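Record format v2
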Amino acid sequence: DQQVKQNSPSLSVQEGRISILNCDYTNSMFDYFLWYKKYPAEGPTFLISISSIKDKNEDGRFTVFLNKSAKHLSLHIVPSQPGDSAVYFCAATYDGQNFVFGPGTRLSVLP
Amino acid sequence: NAGVTQTPKFQVLKTGQSMTLQCAQDMNHNSMYWYRQDPGMGLRLIYYSASEGTTDKGEVPNGYNVSRLNKREFSLRLESAAPSQTSVYFCASSELGSLTDTQYFGPGTRLTVL
């Protein structure tokens, strides 16, 4: 049973618009959540994170929202750029050692 | 400053063959990790090493062994490869392995077992 779910395998957005990527988790022990971006033939790179004591974290064009009661987090990218086209993974951990990743969402930003 | 490097980039094995995937980091990080990624699935943790001299099983350790050779290097060994181990393998490292640490990933090794 997947503990971290990303129910949208793919998402297409027009350049300049908002991209919203969603992630749901089942384990209430998770304390820290991260988003990674992955380009083809490369390893994932860290994008943004959020602690369970916060409900929002912002870094430039990227904002992550956490709703603990719903066990849901989302990544907002505003404005979306063609270079944002990649696979985005949501990940969660409770101890900083065991990380559980979602299956990923492929974002395509159309010019 | 190369970050996390992995060798080889690609490998084809026959069922029953053995091989070792190499990983090295030059960031003086304490913790290192091995993941596998299969189509339609997220990265799954195979083994991790919180610090030099320690290793622990992750979610999918069966069929693998690891060695933390020194602080820089963490290798993954397949003793008798099976087709189910066809995957892309990623090595990662983090400074302290604490809750808020960031993991840095290598470029991956694409392994096919025939």
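Chain B is about 0% helix and 50% strand.
The radius of gyration of chain B is 13 Å.
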